[in-house]
């Protein structure tokens, strides 16, 4: 029913799901993307592939709370569970990536102390999600734009918005360079940083 109603109104639907059953049910219902998809299993992978459902792993949230903890204590139990299931979480996402589930880079958490979470997600997709640097860069650019139906973003092509970054070095050899060696930024065709 969800898929029919959302499609009729041309409104993509995102689901927030960690557990295998919720992930599979969301994909079968026709959601466009699933945030986290932490414990996606073979049934969820099959449902995502069959229904063209994307996943957005959000490793940065996991890393943020692992490193920072909880200021108020409200997240203590969540962090404890998260630390106990880290290996399983990474294995599940790697399995989905390997199977060809479509992946986008993003987050549904807005409480980060700095903006580096987005660029760090590229590193996590490689280090924790089993992607090559090239796959991670594609995921965070063209794939994410495609998920959002913003076809004029995420690629260098005639008719696309000229948002371009230049790195000192080759991020295909070392994904960390995206965070450490940024030297040029163009936003909508205008240079906003030039340290070349």
How far apart the termini lie comes to 53 Å
Query: How many extended strands?
Result: 6
- List low-pLDDT spans: none
Helical segment tally?
8
* Shape descriptor: globular
Percentage of residues in helical conformation: 40-55%
The side-by-side strand order for the widest beta sheet comes to: 1-2-3
Following the backbone from N to C, one meets helices and strands in this order, namely: HEHEHEHHHHEHEE
In angstroms, what is the radius of gyration?
Answer: 18 Å
What does this 3D model show about the protein?
This protein has 196 residues and is α/β, with parallel strands linked by helices. It has helices at 2-9, 20-29, 42-51, 59-68, 76-99, 116-127, 133-147, 177-180; strands spanning 14-17, 33-36, 54-56, 164-167, 182-187, 190-194. It is 47% helix and 13% strand. Strand 5 and strand 6 (190-194) form a beta hairpin. Helix 2 (20-29) packs parallel to helix 3 (42-51).
